[in-house]
Design goal:
About 40% of the residues lie in helices and about 15% in strands. By secondary structure, it is of the alpha/beta class. The protein has 2 domains: about 180 residues, Rossmann fold; about 190 residues, Dehydroquinate synthase-like - alpha domain (Dehydroquinate synthase-like, alpha domain). Helix 5 packs parallel to helix 6 and helix 6 packs parallel to helix 11. It binds nicotinamide-adenine-dinucleotide, the ligand O=C(O)C(=O)C[C@@H](O)[C@H](O)[C@H](O)COP(=O)(O)O and zinc ion.
Length: about 375
């Protein structure tokens, strides 16, 4: 991998801070970069049981060298979506208390999206808000979850139901960390990459050719080609940085980033978040299925051609991602789960639907029958 890319999140709302996403090889050892965003004397490194043994010591050594006197401690959780809970959230707060973290302390989230969301939420709540530095190690976290400030834990009743908007003070993505990522987790990250491609013409900056590029580079992405992955990460971060800069609290077009998620989150919840250690779908896989279902719903409602989802489905399949609802899930139960989707309001469900050509929009008033028909596979292209 060559070079370091930086993407700025230059917020338009005065209440939201600007920050920089640094992407490149070797950044986990860049103590100056990591320490540059630490304001106070205390830092808590939060990680999980897969990532900590691989990378925590390196990050700590780099930080200690760059910032002698830093009171740095480590809190490690078991890996997996089933651990993104209020219980673990409370444990992070306890670790901050044990550290004696003052209001200028920082949380350093070293891991995938589970660690990032949980640690970010704890940072949002400790003393009503301290800094979090996101140090993503999974592809999904580099392209999506470390950027934009959505933090949360899951509840048994629904995904990310308790959370806060809490933008990071910085994002530091060391692309060489992807070399240890299990192939299944690489593919999960590619699902969110495809999401940007699917809705690219509705996202600014206009990078409508991104889906073509993904099709051309699918094999290189799957093969973990350093340069191709680094380019994909930077392009996704540019999409996300732009949308969250203008709509940090999802009052407008940020909601488009939820393409595939109304269905996907329902699947994850209904499976008890068993995607990492059980036999369920993980987040990226559920979003892959969800995007195909959303494409089917778009066609069924006449918003896209009947065959619009074919291209999306075949790219996801090429990337080794699932495109159908796992056996045994009850359509009515999935529909009930969707009622707690955060885009829903008193008037009912809202879906991110698309035109099959890169354009997406938020659509309200979709009849339950139409959703159920897609969930039951009764529409031609669901
Ligand atoms: N906040 C947001 O905007 C946002 C966006 C997208 C997804 N998310 C959330 O992110 C989570 C999914 O993130 P994820 O896919 O990273 O899952 P994850 O955090 O569970 O990581 C996936 C697996 O890979 C392991 N891992 C991570 N980096 C590794 C590395 N470099 N080497 C070896 N193993 C590594 C982890 O230990 C875990 O077992 C979900 O909870 C989802 O809701 C949040
Ligand atoms: O950043 C966003 O906005 C997203 O929607 C990104 C999604 O990929 C991510 O999964 C997010 O956590 C979903 O948010 P939620 O509000 O639907 O819980
Ligand atoms: Zn997502």
């Amino acid at each position: 991998m060559s070079g370091i890319a930086t993407v700025s999140v230059a917020a338009t709302a005065s209440s939201v801070p600007d920050y920089t996403i640094s992407i490149g090889p070797g950044l986990l050892d860049d103590g100056a970069l990591l320490a540059a965003s630490l304001r106070g004397r205390h830092a808590l490194l939060v990680s999980d049981a897969n990532v900590a043994p691989l990378y925590a010591q390196r990050v700590e050594a780099a930080l200690r060298a760059a910032r002698p006197g830093l009171a740095l401690s480590r809190w490690v959780m078991p890996a997996g979506e089933q651990e993104k809970t209020l219980t673990r959230f409370g444990e992070v707060l306890d670790a901050l208390a044990a550290l004696g973290a003052t209001r200028d302390a920082s949380v350093i989230a070293l891991g995938g999206g589970v660690v990032g969301d949980l640690a970010g939420f704890a940072a949002a709540c400790w003393m009503r808000g301290i800094d979090v530095v996101q140090v993503p190690t999974s592809l999904l976290a580099m392209v999506d979850s470390s950027v934009g400030g959505k933090t949360a834990v899951d509840l048994p009743t629904g995904k990310n139901l308790a959370g806060a908007f809490h933008p990071p003070r910085a994002v530091v993505a060391d692309t060489t960390a992807l070399r240890s990522l299990p192939p299944r987790e690489l593919r999960a990250g590619l699902a969110e990459v495809v999401k940007y491609g699917a809705i690219a013409t509705s996202l600014k900056p206009d990078d409508g050719a991104f889906l073509d590029w993904l099709e051309q580079h699918a094999d290189a992405l799957l093969g973990c080609d350093d340069a191709v992955l680094a380019e994909a990460i930077a392009r996704c971060c540019r999409f996300k940085a732009a949308v969250v800069a203008r709509d940090p609290f999802e009052r407008g077009d940020r909601a488009l980033l939820n393409f595939g998620h109304t269905f996907g989150h329902a699947i994850e919840t209904e499976q008890g978040y068993a995607g990492t250690i059980g036999d369920g779908l993980n987040h990226g896989e559920a979003v892959a299925v969800g995007m195909v279902l959303a494409a089917g719903l778009s066609s069924a409602l006449g918003l896209a051609d009947a065959s619009a989802g074919d291209r999306l489905r075949s790219l996801l399949q090429r990337l080794g991602l699932p495109v159908t609802i796992p056996d045994g899930l009850d359509p009515l139960a999935l529909l009930a789960r969707m009622r707690l989707d955060k885009k829903a309001d008193a008037a009912g469900l809202r879906f991110i639907l698309w035109d099959g050509r890169g354009g997406a929009s938020v659509v309200s008033g979709v009849a339950d029958d139409a959703v159920l028909a897609v969930l039951r596979g009764e529409t031609a292209h669901a």
